[in-house]
Amino acid sequence: MRLSFGSTSVALGLLLLAPPAMAADQLKVVTSFTILQDMVKEIGSNHVEASTLVGTDSDPHAFEPTPNDAKNLAAADLVIVSGRGLEGWMDRLIMASGYKGPIVIASTGVPERTMVDEEGEDSGEPGKVIPDPHAWNSVPNGKIYATNIIAALSKADPADAAYYQKAGEKYLQQLTDLDNWVRQEFATIPKDERKLITSHDALGYFADAYGLQFLAPAGLSTESEASAQDVAKLIQQIKAEKIKAVFVENSMNQLLVKQIADETGAKIGGTLYVESLSKGDGPAPTYVKMVRHNVTLMVAALHGQ
Ligand SMILES: [Zn+2]
């Protein structure tokens, strides 16, 4: 639309006279990754402006902050991270940005769990036992995250605390319903048949919560191309352990995946979202939708569908 000079100045005048826009009242929350950003939005709605450092479909372990990220942080009212070593890059970024405000660790209160850092991605020492950072993947832990976020928003923005409490309770109820649904879904599969192979190491808390067994694909690392010997090993493992479903990442080519399926009868599942959400039009744009998507794929594969 073309505006004449006259109407432009009228519009500007109105803008100047208007009370400070919504944005000025919004609590500026910077989160480390998309799952936290979603929870802050669910609980804070238009009382918060929630941004994320690591974007959709990205790896929260490995992140190269830009000067823009430091600028964004410097202007924040509140910073929320997941913790337990997930955001190894965060301390340096906080330092560089000069941010002096509160830093809330959303996983506070989640029971401890350890994992083996197979490739040394987090510790720099392959094979080292480290705290498992992937706490959000079980819904009971997701509720702990949400509870911590409700408290953090209320403290940082007391004027809107009543809103955060109310919206937060509603969100917690959604997560309770989600948790019940996940349990009902897995209850359709005998416990000793809830065995999947996945190259994701992010599902430990999830497996503990829902009585699943996740086995790492024998001989396959995410770094290298699979050799014929690796594939033979994997096929043997699937047969020996009577594994019904295999979820592999894109490091394996589709022909190979099909060969494994044909030779073992195991169902090859789709793409699981475990460390980041998808874009808005993808299958996992929110935490709740992410869990639903993953469980739907797993249960279908376990039923051989
Ligand atoms: Zn991870």
TrEMBL record:
Signal peptide segment: 1-23
Localisation per UniProt entry: Cell envelope
Major localisation: other
Keywords: Metal-binding, Signal, Transport
Domain of life: Bacteria
One Pfam family recorded for the sequence: ZnuA
Family: Belongs to the bacterial solute-binding protein 9 family.
Protein name: Metal ABC transporter substrate-binding protein
